[in-house]
Amino acid sequence: MNIAAKRWVPHTIASVCLLVLLYPLAWLLATSLKPADEVIASLDLWPSRLEWGNYTTALEGVSGIPVSRLLGNSLLIAGGSVLGNVLSCSLAAYAFARLRFRMSRPMFGFMVATLMLPHHVVLIPQYIIFNRLGLTDTFWPLILPKFLATEAFFVFLIVQFMRGLPRELEESARIDGCGPFRTYWAITLPLSRPALITTAIFTFIWTWNDFFTQMIYLFSPEKSTITLALRSFVDQGSTSAYGPMFAMSVISVLPIVLFFFVFQRYLVQGMATSGLKG
Q: What CA–CA distances, in Å, run from 3 to 9, 10, 11, 73, 92?
């Protein structure tokens, strides 16, 4: 095999894999423009005529709640979760990576072990606690735990990154009179930006796509998120409005795509410098 063939074979394989991965998105976009009778019956990718009314119906929202309100609720929950995870997980990671205290290693090992704990195991105790506090049917059960460093994966990710930072900078700051918190805020936190942005991206995507937890805690239509609203297109009137449902799916995907494209270079850098360190 000559040099030119060796060069083109990997690119061809990568291009084919890319097409396979992008096909569901292309199908989603095409289906959102199909008339109702073609969504299930037709196997063609592209519709016979463009039904822009699907997007008009989707923008009207569900149960009298406009899509702008649904997007706002989702952004509020996702934004609060990102802020909580970045602050709390970075503080916990700084303590494990830079501070010396008794039982730090067993505590870190116990924290990592919680990665194997299924989410459903703690769901009922958490629901009982929030219900007794009167916080159900509010956004607090979805945001408040993020400020308590409950995401062990992100704590571990940031710890691995902080362990690779030079200690000389912190020692210089300590000589200048900086305490642990000032050193964390002024020195370690800015240098950990790739890991923090990686945490923010994954938190935003996972929170935005979360359906189960939001369904458990949110009851009122005005507090529904864009994820919960998608279910309403299947249930309302005992019929399935597939066209508007796929149109709203496209609308719900756009914030994730935009968020990813803005921060994708930090995601690659953060994963490359955090996940491969021992």
A: 10, 12, 13, 54, 51
The residues pairing with 65 across neighbouring beta strands, listed in sequence order, are: 62
Answer yes or no: are the C-beta atoms of 252 and 230 closer than 8 Å: yes
Which DSSP symbol is given to 148? G
CA-closest candidate to residue 94, choices 219, 204, 188: 188
N- to C-terminal Cα distance for the chain?
Answer: 39
* Residue 166: count of CB within 10 angstroms of its CB: 9
Angle, helices 104-113 vs 152-162, to 10°: value is 130
The CA-based diameter of the chain, rounded to the nearest angstrom, is: 73
- Contact yes or no for 139/78 (Cβ under 8 A): no
Give residue limits of the domains in the chain.
63-274
CATH of span 63-274 = 1.10.3720.10
**Range list of H helices, the chain:** 3-31, 36-41, 53-59, 67-98, 104-113, 119-132, 140-143, 152-162, 167-175, 180-183, 189-191, 193-209, 212-217, 226-235, 242-274
Q: d(Cα 19, Cα 211) in Å, to the nearest integer?
A: 28
pLDDT averaged over every residue in the chain: 86
pLDDT tens-digit profile of 16-75?
Answer: 998 898 888 888 888 888 887 777 777 777 888 888 888 988 888 887 888 999 999 999
251, 62 Cβ separation under 8 angstroms: no
Please give the structure tokens belonging to residue 236.
């309302």
Q: Supply the pTM of this predicted model.
A: 0.85
Residue 97 phi, psi (nearest 5): -85, -30
Dihedral sign, Cα of residue 181, residue 184, residue 186, residue 187: positive
